[in-house]
Amino acid sequence: MKRRTSTITVLVLLTLIVLSVAYLLPIYVMLVASLKTPLEISQRRYLIPSGHLQFKNYVQAFQLVRSALINSSIISFSVTLLAAFLGGLGGYWLSRSRSTFAKVLFILVGIALYLPYQVVLIPLVQVMARTKLALTHLGLILSYLILNMPLASVLMGTFFLGMPRELEEAAEVDGANKLQTFFYVITPMALPAYASTAIIIFTQVWNEFLLALTLSTPQTTTIQVKLAEVKGSFVALYNIQMAAALISVFIPLVFFVALGRYFIRGILAGALKG
Amino acid sequence: MKVYRLPRWALAVSLLLIAALALGACAQQTPQVVTKEVEKVVKETVVVTQVVEKVVTKEVEKVVTKEVVVTPTPKPEEKKLEIFHWWTAGGEREAADAMFRVFKEKYPDVEIIENPVAGGGGVSHRVVLQARLSAGLPPDTWQTLGGAELKSYVDGGYLEPLDDLYAELKYKDVIPQPLYNAVTINGHPYVVPLNMHIQNILYYNKKLFDELGLKPPTTYDELVAAAKAIKDAKPKMSPLGLGTKEKWEAAFLFDSILLEEGGPEYYVKLYKGEIDVKTDPTYKKALEKLQALLPYVYPYHSNLTWDESCGLLVSGDSAMVIMGTWAIGYFKSRGWTPGEDFGAVTFPQKPERILLFHPDTYGKAKNAPHPQTVMLWLKTVASPDLQIPTDVIQGGLFARLDIDPKEFPDPIRQELQTYVRNNPQKLILDQHGSIAPFSFTQAYWDAVAAFIADPNVDSTLSTVSDLFQIYDVKTEAAWYQWP
Amino acid sequence: MERVRRWQRKWRRLTWGDVISTAIFLLPLLIFLVVLYGMLVWTFYVSMANWKGTAPNYTFVGLKWYKLMFSLDRFWVDVRNNLKWMILGVIPTTFVALLLAYLLEIGSIPGTETYIRTLILYPVAMSFVVTGTIWSWMYQPDKGVFNTILRALGLDFLTGRFTTDPATATYWLILIFIWQYLGFAVIILQSSFRTAELQEMIEAATVDGAGRLRILFSIIVPNIRGGMLILISLLLISALKVFDIVYVVTFGGPGYSTDVLAFFMFIATFQQHLVALGAGLGVIIFLMAFVVVIPYTIYAFRKWFE
């Protein structure tokens, strides 16, 4: 028994080293690049730190990405909130109804669930631009909402499926209607599910590039588009780009950490156990 | 032919929800629609601006701006200019700033709304622009290259012809004839060029060339000889730098060989789709010459973008690179002095010295939200006041031939501009402002880049020949006239 | 007759409250779904219209653009590459994630779990544009990070051409994908381990003296089918719609050897201005996605309405 445990420890340590190298090396390269001068960038000595550390790159990068960070935050958080809330409603209904309509709807949602957004890119852009929604944050918010609603509904619904019905029955006996039951009894219990759905949706929206690029306007440029842009096409300012990336990584990271403890005992454990 | 429209219900349903939510959006931002009322105003004020223009030529600029402000109109057009361009970073950003500064000096009350989208040669820019245009939401004006790209906008019906403006400014007389042809589709000029970029320039590390006693090559044979000499002296070097990540760079290199092998008439005929590539000996010979050159080319070219390939010279990995005039700005930003650290020659200069070029241009959108202001902008673009500071920073040549070449700080462009001034007929459209349609050009670049990565003459010949057929180059490129 | 009467009874019992609550629950989902499917139909139609050039053109031309698509060598390269992505991007990721998640469960040294989780999750939080750039630096054959390190260690024989070799470039891109999604996969699997029933089963098996690998493959894996299925579908679709990595690291090159359908769609629609061809490629992506999603939908449907 003892020996087996130590084999495991060795294995864990080994994994730790391999993963550390694989995941810290890119970060190191980023950090080094973000502190270089343009001339040092064209030398392409990626592992060697700059001779004169350019901390002002960060100041410049922050000024460049500030408005994009605000845009991205507005868009991502709105979509995340709305998708989790509306998806919760739809998912709850799907998990409770046994009608033929619910079955048909479920299949439609299932197909739409993983629809690659490229498929609807052309019409989506047409609709958004023609209604002039593309000029506002609302255009991107709606687009992402449309694309992520099925996923949110299924994730939430899966959780509700696994919840015992006794509580709802008890609430009904007490005279609560369906909406009251949902908002006062079900929702508080489903907070971990909301948290994990939020994380998944947030990740999808925050990292989305193609649609954000296609609908980009000066007022709605997201961080992904901005990061691709700060490098420029002329004098590749990789140093600024890397500094900007390191600055912008904090928003999703903080969000992950804040919701992470819900996430780990999230919904998947609840319902899809086999 | 029967025209099928999209099913009504699909549109209706899609729009229903969005319309409802749009109310919220409208509260935030009022979309600018040109109503009929405003259009009338436009007609009235056109006269006014013409009067103003006369003042421009005679009086001091300050007086003019006063005039514009005072111009009384019942419902004046908003003093705004929405503009799309792709000069976003590095030296280009400064060029854009210079451009807008000149405009602001002339018309301080106009608010410029920029939508800069980065991407080499406007790759991303095109994405955003196409989305906006096809949905009927055009900006006032946008950056476009001449040639095929311009044609795609004209064919789409998104640009207004500028015959009147050209007549008024006599712009045709001050720019080279080939440049005028490059912005003229079906007999009408549609955009105002502000510069010319030359594609076929060979840059070389001057100090190294002096050290080895080499003369900058101007023919294919000289290029191979120079490459060999460099390789012998510095075995670790790849004499000719190259980066083909965005593909067009590959076509640049190949064009230089093609131009020497076939001459200018052949070059034009080829991209007009008038040559059967599959059986054409010249094209085959050029491919073989390209293949023979590859041992001297930087082997990992598919990893590098054009700026990184110029970086190979700075870092000492290569000694030469074939790139457009915009590379001058790159070298300078890396601390290299033209004529001292690096030199540049037109390549090839056999059978004659031809300059492959494309212009950056601006036009006027059909249904532009601010039609009056755009005209002010276009007039500024055509003026030496804008072209001198912008082009000096950004790296191209002046579109106007009446600007003194000495305005350029570097000997390279002084010489090029003088050559263009004396030989305006030696200009031919290049890969960017291409003769062939865009659909073809994009696929063609891939084919040439694939050849450089993995050379196979026969299969490339048939691929390229197919591409000419599939994209119907012969019809689509018929608009181009040279000389 | 009996059925009709039951319907009638049901209708009579239906109150306004029921209608309103159903509407609130269902309408948002329903509306978004209708819009989504409306746009899907729209794309189908565009792929059979003659829309080339910058202006919309809805003239019906049938399968013209599909014929062109199938005649292009590039299209078939893309399909092959997409299949490579879907196989090599998914199976290794799932397998490694499974081992890693299990290892973290049974043998975590205090404090290491949080460290590892943060470590492998940051790529998810970071711009793909930027991680792509970093990886293209890692891969550069002459001065890139990997080859520099290998040369410094005296392991010159291990140095490679990576993404500049048309024959193997796609595999190196897939490695980035695995790197990026590993953290995500581990988290999903870990959370499906943590059910009371499964933990009990594992305890029972441990008492019986079963080996650790045996527990993993004959007890855990069969009991986390749900989590596995979600993970695999998610990875499959991500691999199918991959765009950013190709766009940033190789731009489809060398030549078009690393091109994928989504990237070709981007080029066709926005650079070549062949919008109908782009829509057709979108339809192909959808059909491939459809095949992937079917097993999930059937499985989920059975579980849902059991």
Structure in a nutshell:
Chain A contains 14 helices and no strands.
State the low-pLDDT regions of chain B, or none. Answer: 1-74
Main β-sheet, spatial strand arrangement of chain B? 2-1-3-13-6
Summing up helix and strand content along with how strands pair, one would put the structural category of chain C as: mainly alpha
Low-confidence stretches of chain C: none
**Computed CA radius of gyration of chain B, to the nearest angstrom:** 24 Å
CATH class of the largest domain in chain C: Mainly Alpha
Tally of distinct domains of chain B? 2
CATH topology tier name of the largest domain in chain C:
MetI-like fold
The named CATH superfamily of the largest domain in chain B = Periplasmic binding protein-like II
How far apart are the first and last residues' alpha carbons of chain B, in Å? 38 Å
Order of helices and strands of chain C: HHHHHHHHHHHHHHH
The CATH architecture name of the largest domain in chain C reads Orthogonal Bundle
**Tell me about the biggest sheet of chain B?**
5 strands, mixed
- Give the termini distance of chain C in whole angstroms: 28 Å
Q: Examine the coordinates and then state which fold CATH places here, giving the name of the CATH topology of the largest domain in chain B.
A: D-Maltodextrin-Binding Protein, domain 2
The level of helicity of chain B is 40-55%
| CATH class call of the largest domain in chain B | Alpha Beta
**Helix fraction of chain C by DSSP (H/I, runs of at least 4):** over 70%
CATH superfamily of the largest domain in chain C: MetI-like
